[in-house]
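User: What would this chain look like folded?
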Amino acid sequence: MSNLRITQGELITPQKSQLADLYIENNLLSFAPSLADKTSVTIIDAKNCYITPGLFDLQVNGSKSCNLWADPSVDDFAGLCLYMLKAGVTAFLPTLITDEIEHMHKNILMLESMGVGGNISAQLREKICKQIAGLDKLNASGTKEIILLPGIHLEGPYLSSQRTGVHPPQYIRSIEMSELSQLIRPSIKLMTLAPEGKNGELAVQYLLQHNVLPSLGHSNATFLEASQSFAWGVCLITHIFNALPPIHQRQPGAIVAALLNESVYCCVICDGLHVDPEMVRLLVKMKGKDKVILVTDIASTGTTSGGLVGSSITLAQAVSNIVKWGIVSFAEAIRMATINPAKAMNLEHKLGQIEEGRRADLVIWDKQSLTVKHVIANGVKVF
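Assistant: Here's the prediction, encoded as structure tokens.
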């Protein structure tokens, strides 16, 4: 496999921005070439471009060709992974919403069979690589982890019947600990629930004990109930402002509780439809650049049907939107799509930064249009 040299780009990291060349050797990042023979180096000219870490999306329900709410095949899921990669997302959490418990179990096992929550399967890797020009002939070592799938996000079924959104109301249920213990497996890393309901505190404790991060969402919690859940260990709020009680001067609710709690991360959908840009501005002003996470909630239907059935944007588009709305700088937006979700998921040792010796997951952006020009995943140029 050819090593890569990326020249004349502006590196955007959580610490600083700087003009620098980057070297990728054996899938790892370096700021200086090794003494090895450089006859096989491929040069990527990044003049007038930003270079950022690969993006990390915590809420991916599917795409036009893959519906994780249905019964996707390996080919469907490989197509979703490729779609994410081409959009600059080098890591994501496949998200399953409220459904019959048996069907949720079925799709959890399906995702596990493809390596979600661990190393991606050889079958999935091969199917992804065959769709990328030139990668089908690369040896397995060069593409073993072409995309990172740290785990599954379960959004439901333990939600508020008053804040269902698109979740099928007939499958929303109260928390039963015996059922929850059967639903949670090592591949589950994030769970959205309404903690104000029955067994809320027990559920939060159980999730934390089993290395699952609890996130408040689709909840009708009062300010006090939400604040109590944060004290129990709930550390995120799922797509803030959506499927939650609106802010009211006499009933502040979960949104205000999250805005005032310095330890809680707030995920937000920046497509301009789910949340008005001025509400995003308020969120950033209240939470600061370190506690806001950009997510897409992208789904197979999305907003194309005229409703809000998930979104239809990519994470790169969310980054571009929040910058073009004049709310944050490009570097701050990148933080919200890389290191912030990585820190929230306790994965900052692996994701979200550009550092010597790290896995080479990079996005090269055109500075003028803020669109993705090239993506490098585990040292491999995807496009």
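The longest strand covers residues 4-12. If you want, I can go into more detail on any region.
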